[in-house]
Amino acid sequence: QVQLVESGGGLVQAGGSLRLSCAASGRTFSSADMGWFRQAPGKEREFVAAISASGGSRYYGDSVGGRFTISRDNAKNTGYLQMNSLKPEDTAVYFCATESLSNMREYRNWGQGTQVTVSS
Fold first, then answer.
1. What is the DSSP letter of 11?
2. DSSP character string of 18-77
3. Distance separating alpha carbons of residues 89 and 119, to the nearest angstrom
4. Which are the contacts of 61, defined by CB distance < 8 A and separation ≥ 6?
5. What tens-digit pLDDT sequence spans the chain (120 residues)?
6. Cβ(65)–Cβ(4) under 8 Å?
């Protein structure tokens, strides 16, 4: 069973940066696509970014392109989301996910999430 643990969330001022990490257990991480999603209070879950198993392909949601960068270190079983130029509207719980079920938008495994709060 794959377990995912996010870390790196916190409170930051607008314009600041954070780097989220997603530590995965199990032997499937290096062969699995990975994604980041977020959910703000009262809103639906939103796709943020995805990366292929090899790291060769990356995709971003329209609201974060150019500000966020997804990456992974398969040797460490860890994925990352570098978030720059943060805005108050980026405030949400951020989740990582692995093993894409469909077009890197639906996943089999999910973490518990980490809170990101951006103050104005």
1. E
2. EEEEEEE-SS-GGGS-EEEEEE-TTS--EEEEEE-TTS--EEE-TTTTTTEEEEEEGGGT
3. 9
4. 46, 47, 48, 49
5. 889 999 999 999 999 999 999 999 987 899 999 999 999 999 999 999 999 999 999 999 999 989 999 999 999 999 999 999 999 999 999 999 999 998 888 999 999 999 999 999
6. no
Rounded Cα distance, 98 and 65, in Å: 20
Following CA atoms 44, 95, 62, 29 in sequence, which dihedral angle do they give, to the nearest 10 degrees? -130
What's the rounded Cα separation, in Å, for the pair 23 and 58?
19
Token pair 């997603």 is at which residue?
A: 22
Beta carbons of 39 and 45 less than 8 angstroms apart: yes
